[in-house]
Amino acid sequence: MTELVILVLGIAVLFYVLLGGADFGAGIVELVTGKRGIDTISKAIAPVWEANHIWLILAVVILFNGFPLVYTTLTTYLHIPLFIILLGIIFRGTAFTFRYYDTVKDNSHKYYTQLFRISSLLTPFFLGVTLGAIMLGKIPAQVDGTFYAIFVAPWLNLFSFTTGIFLTLLFGWLAAIYLLGEAQDEESFQTFAKTSRIFFVLLVVSGLSVFLVSEMHELNFFSRFLHSSVAIGCVLVATAIIPFLWAGIRQRNNLQTRFLAGVQTACILTGWFAIQFPVMIYLADGSALTIQNSQAPERTISLLVYALVAGILLIFPAFAYLFKVFKFSQNKQG
Amino acid sequence: MDDFLAARLQMTVSFVFHIVFACIGMTMPWLMFAAELKWIKTGRKVYLDLSKAWARGVAIFFAVGAVSGTVLSFELGLLWPKFMEHAGAIIGMPFSWEGTAFFLEAIALGVFLYGRDRVNKRVHLFSGLLVGIAGVVSGIFVVAANAWMNSPSGFDWVNGQAINIDPVKAMFNKAWFQQALHMTIAAFASTSFAVAGVHAFMLLRHKGNEFHRGAIHIALLFGAVAAILQPLSGDISAKNVAKLQPAKLAAMESLFKTSEPASLVIGGIPDEEKEEVKYGIHIPHLLSFLAHGDPNAEVEGLDKTSKENWPPVAIVHFAFQIMVFMGMLMMGAGILFLIFNFKWKENLDKRWWLKLLVWLTPVGFIAVEAGWIVTEVGRQPWIIYGIMKTKDAVTPMPGVQYPFFLITLIYLALTFLVFILMRRQITAVHKNPQNINSHD
Fold this sequence. Notes:
The complex is a heterodimer of chains A (334) and B (440). By secondary structure, chain A is an all-alpha fold. Chain A contains 15 helices and two strands. Chain A has one domain. Chain A is globular, with a radius of gyration of 20 Å. With 440 residues, chain B is mostly helical. Chain B is 72% helix and 5% strand. At the A-B interface, helix 3, helix 4, helix 5, helix 7 and helix 14 of A face helix 2, helix 3 and helix 14 of B.
């Protein structure tokens, strides 16, 4: 039963990264493209961002219901980055909504736009920082020590910041790919294509630097990676996809491009998961919160599975319908 | 500032802010759906305009509510990690169901808002209905989780650990139905009266405007029914609280000494030191009757609870009085509306009536906030009633006042911005009716 919960948690994280990530990334792309992107971006994410955002809530609920100790360890020791993530979520969501719905176009739109872009950067970066902190193993096992040691050091370090940059770039790249299919004219298509190339190069560089920095922190990331055939397989698949992805962009096959970018992202996450398994959080004393030692009692887990399965049976068709209506309609018209 | 106090205040601010959006999210889709139905039935364009205008309102409030709800789902752990460590496994289930309902609501809202010209008419109408159903259902799930804090069940508490956890029993605890009923009706009453008030304000400026007249009519139908039903559900709730949390009821009523029979105290200033109420109006036998259905029944006072476990009596007492008073105002207006609607229809366009509605705009939300203060402050010092104290659940992180100040500032700013935005939306209806849903 626990495996199923983990599977759904993985799906929720993947979908949040793919969909919610693309929405946050849209704000990052807007930082690069400026005014030229605004129209496409607003129209592209307005109908879907709330539904996309709920994958995060689903992940949070699975954590506090199925793995309460993991949830409370995160919220206790990573209070500060999580709070910043929240600030980003508040500002991004409200700034976007206000900008989109405000009937009067005046100066306030400039502020909404600024706020939208900056907060779109804030949440992905600190999400990445949080993920880095989970891997790094500086989270104390108990509240003991200075404020800095307990509540700051676990996440304020080079490794966490490197993972933060990586996730930010990943979100930006996903958004650029997603927006290719939403572009309404040649000029904006070219803009997004160029942005996607820039982000891709930066993403590869930052991915490599995650490995590099992990060696500096003596995380043995690289040797753990070499010992996991799943992780190696994932990287191979992700690499093999690259030429097809580029071809997809060149041939304007937006469905292919999106799908392949999704597969690559799934590879990255699966590879990471394979290296991390079965650990959820590495702790400073050398121990770890694992899937086994932090899970809720069996009855809770099985009820959670029922709820998730029922939920997915309801949600997926509805979700597919939403995307069919809004995301593939242009293909039909064209 | 004391960290514990800061944590409590941050939770309060987040909750006070979110609950308004939650109420609107539960109710306004139904108003929108009713307008859509009327448009289909009568073919009168004002109802279509109304449905579109309300749908935009729903979208704005839903977005802000989704965001402030996410904040709460994190804050539970950020501020009360010890609580969540134990409660997560017990009461997480309704949240996972709520997640599903919320998902469907977001999807259906997307279809209703942006799909008018893209999907089949029936699917479009159904999506509107689904938004309403999902909104109410997710509200009920969350309230059930809160009810568990008042009436914990579905586990055994042994040496500071929860064992034999049964999430189904926990969700269907002894308070869930009463609380969910009271809250759902409250959401309908408060939002409907607020909507009616806003449109009444506009109708005063634009005399005879059909758009606003239609809006007021739909909103008040919902509001009147809810406001008239609410005292009944309040009675059911009070009897339940008397049974499950006698200290809370005693605080609501400032009943310091166990009495048989007990009289109902209206108003007054409770003095916790001297254990008496000054200036209140006492109605003999009434509390016994309301709490236990028997005018001579014994009602447990605060003297049965050791003083360290008292909730802050004055706050709970005042909040309760405010809630009841506001509820009575709405009920009165609701009854008037139904009478006028049945006979003397001309009154519904009179200035005094519209002015009254304008004055009643915030009343429902004040009642909702006061009601939650009764529930939450009345449960103190417990976070899980009789099991875990709130102070033992708070985060070990010092300096909580900083996030508290920040969240307070942000929510004040957001409140202001939402207000401006809604004002612009509403005035835009008159400047350029085609402007509505210009994104379609």
